[in-house]
Structures are given as structure tokens and as C-alpha cells.
Specification:
single chain, 363 residues, alpha/beta, Quinone Oxidoreductase, Chain A, domain 1, Rossmann fold, 2 domains, seven-stranded mixed β-sheet, six-stranded parallel β-sheet, 13 helices, 30% helix, 24% strand, globular, GroES-like_sf, zinc, ADH-like_C, metal-binding, oxidoreductase activity
Length: 363
């Protein structure tokens, strides 16, 4: 292997709506369970915008939590991978053996850390330190494109989790029935990248999927993914007409704000479910009268990627042409500030940063 440089390019947050591409020291092995990755592709996600908008009061760390990379160094405790392996990383690491991991709650592992925050630098950089490699990383299958695999790091797995929880909550008191029965009506609130993945996932679990968004371009994408798409002022009437006046069986909220959450509650039928995968970082006010009056069933929280990886991978493999169109923009790290701004304005869809040593074309 060639001699590594002393520094690397990295996308660093420096303040509200302010990022810089800076030279940073290369990461190094800190624990025996670490590996060092040379980044091949790294994603730009809506969660990155939370920090970019400076809702996190800390600055000076490297952003990014979606990566496919090549292992260039391994800790002496790593057994499942070797130098040269091409791997994908979920947006959080996990130990695989604690009480939470043993029950499939990987995102709440006692050693879990999310990349791209003040506690652990992210992967929008030329190199990345991956903790707990053996229990966290996935090898990239030879029949899956690298940028498709990147979607399993977060958005597709998260979209599937949202749909799964919405369906499971409906089925929990229906004896003799299971998740394998494809029925019911779901509505996806928000048609950005995670919302589109929730639509594709919900179509494997529900008979009919509706979707709504403020952005007309995103509604068109939602239709391509198989949803019946409507604007916010049309969605309730469309659902009532399509369900004999009941409303949706499940609402899948991927936005992460109070208005979206209250809309979800408004759109479900009595005993319906609301599955919330949008990242809520502010207090919300909900109507106890509505919650009680609808016997609403709620699920919130961070996706445990390892649990849903197999199902999400199957959706990816079954829809290669659809996901070829899913990533709309490819750029270099040097262009990060421009693409953060465009993504924040809703002018672009899923964007990936491609390493300088690779062509920009899909891989």
C-alpha cells in the first residue's frame, strides 16, 4: 500500500449554516476493535442538516454518518474483516452482545455512538475511524453497487424500520395474523430521501400507500416509488375517500417536527398507528384528547440498522432501476457547502460525496 498522507480533507462544522472543508490529521486506531476506512462514497442526509443549522451547540467536528469505504488498517482484535475489504457502516456502531443488542435494539447499545457529532467524528472525510468493527460493519456484496449499499447505512434501513413499526403496531393484538400479511393503508408524511425509502418499504407491508409533502417535485418522486401522492391540503380528503371515511391505518412520520406529528395523528383512524422516525430535537405539544379519542398507538426513535439490514437489502436488490434514479447528485467533498445549502432548500434529492480517487459516475 502506498504511504498515507499526513492530513486529509474533511467537512467540518464551524457555526450556524457554516461548514468548511479543512485539512485534518488522519484518524488512527484507538481501540483493538477499530478499523480505519478510506472513504469511497459518503452520503449527505437530513440528519446532517440538524447540525448544519446549528441545533447542536458544539462545533469543530467532522460531519457525516453514511459511508462505504475500504479497510486500510485493522486493530489487533478485529477478526471478521481484513485490509482491502470494501464495507458499509450503519450510522451508529454497536457491540452486538449487550442487553439491547441481544434483543435487536442495536441503536440503543450501551456502547453505541452516532458518527458525525461532537463525540465521534463523521465520515464526510477522506478517512474514517470505525469503532466496534466486527459487530458493526457489513461487507458490500459483489452484486450490489457501492452507492446503493450506502443507502443501507441509514435512509433505506430507516425507511423500512418506520414502515415495519407502523405495521407491527397494527398487528400486535390481531391473533392469528402476522407481518407477512400484506394489507392496510399507510400514509408517508414527508417525501425526501427517507420518505421515498419508507414508501418503497411500506409497499411490501401494506396494500396501499399514500404520501404527502409541500414540495411538488418530491410528490412526483413519491409517485415514481409507487405512492398515491397529494399535497398537504389534499391528503386528508384523499385518505377519507379511499378508506370509506376511516383514515389511514398507519401514518409514517419521517420529517421530525411538531406539525408533521400532529398531521400524522389527524390522518389515522381510531386504533391506528403513528410510526415516527423523523429526528425530533425540540419539545412537541400533542392533544391528549386526540390521543385518547383515537386509541392511537405510537412508536418513536432511532433505527437499529443491523436488525433491518436483511429486509432493506432485499428491497434494494428487487428495485435496482428505481434506486439507480434515487441518488440525484454526486459531488466532491470540496463542494460540500454548496450541496448542504441546496439540500436544505429542498432543491436536490439524495446526494453522495465521491472520493477524489474515484470517478463521479455510479459504482
Amino acid at each position: 500500500m502506498s504511504v498515507l498522507p499526513a492530513t486529509m480533507k474533511a467537512v467540518v462544522i464551524r457555526g450556524k449554516y457554516h461548514i468548511e472543508v479543512e485539512d485534518r490529521p488522519l484518524p488512527f486506531i484507538k481501540e483493538d476493535t477499530d478499523v480505519i476506512l478510506r472513504t469511497r462514497v459518503a452520503g449527505l442526509c437530513g440528519s446532517d442538516l440538524h447540525n448544519w443549522r446549528f441545533t447542536d451547540p458544539t462545533s469543530g467536528y467532522i460531519l457525516g454518518h453514511e459511508i462505504v469505504g475500504e479497510i486500510i488498517e485493522i486493530g489487533k482484535g478485529v477478526k471478521n474483516f481484513k485490509v482491502g475489504d470494501i464495507v458499509a457502516a450503519p450510522f451508529h456502531c454497536c457491540c452486538g452482545i449487550c442487553w439491547y443488542c441481544s434483543r435487536g435494539y442495536f441503536s440503543r447499545c450501551t456502547k453505541a455512538q452516532c458518527y458525525g457529532g461532537p463525540d465521534l467524528d463523521g465520515c464526510q472525510a477522506e478517512y474514517f475511524r470505525q469503532p466496534l468493527a466486527d459487530s458493526t460493519l457489513f461487507p458490500v456484496p459483489p452484486d450490489v453497487k457501492e452507492e446503493h449499499m450506502l443507502l443501507l447505512s441509514d435512509v433505506l434501513s430507516t425507511g423500512y424500520a418506520c414502515a415495519y413499526y407502523g405495521k407491527r403496531l397494527l398487528d400486535e393484538d390481531r391473533e392469528g395474523e402476522s407481518m407477512e400479511v400484506k394489507d392496510g393503508v399507510a400514509v408517508v408524511i414527508g417525501c425526501g430521501p427517507v420518505g421515498l425509502c419508507a414508501i418503497s418499504s411500506a409497499l411490501t407491508l401494506f396494500s396501499t400507500v399514500y404520501a404527502c409533502d409541500l414540495n411538488l417535485d418530491r410528490l412526483l418522486l413519491a409517485e415514481k416509488h409507487g405512492a398515491k401522492a397529494f399535497s398537504l391540503d389534499q391528503i386528508k380528503q384523499a385518505l377519507l375517500e379511499g378508506t370509506d371515511g376511516r383514515g389511514a391505518d398507519a401514518a409514517l412520520e419521517v420529517v421530525g417536527n411538531e406539525n408533521a406529528l400532529n398531521l400524522a395523528l389527524d390522518l389515522i383512524r381510531p386504533f391506528g398507528s403513528v410510526s415516527v422516525i423523523g429526528q425530533h430535537i425540540k419539545p412537541v405539544t400533542l392533544s391528549g384528547e386526540v390521543l385518547y379519542g383515537k386509541n392511537a398507538r405510537l412508536q418513536f426513535g432511532r433505527c437499529p440498522v443491523r436488525r433491518f439490514y436483511p429486509a432493506a437489502l432485499q428491497i434494494l436488490k428487487q428495485n435496482p432501476d428505481l434506486f439507480d434514479q434515487f441518488i440525484t447528485h454526486r459531488a466532491r467533498l470540496d463542494q460540500a457547502a454548496k450541496y448542504y445549502d441546496l439540500f436544505n432548500q429542498g432543491k436536490i434529492g439524495k446526494t453522495v460525496f465521491v472520493a477524489d480517487h474515484l470517478p463521479l459516475e455510479p459504482r
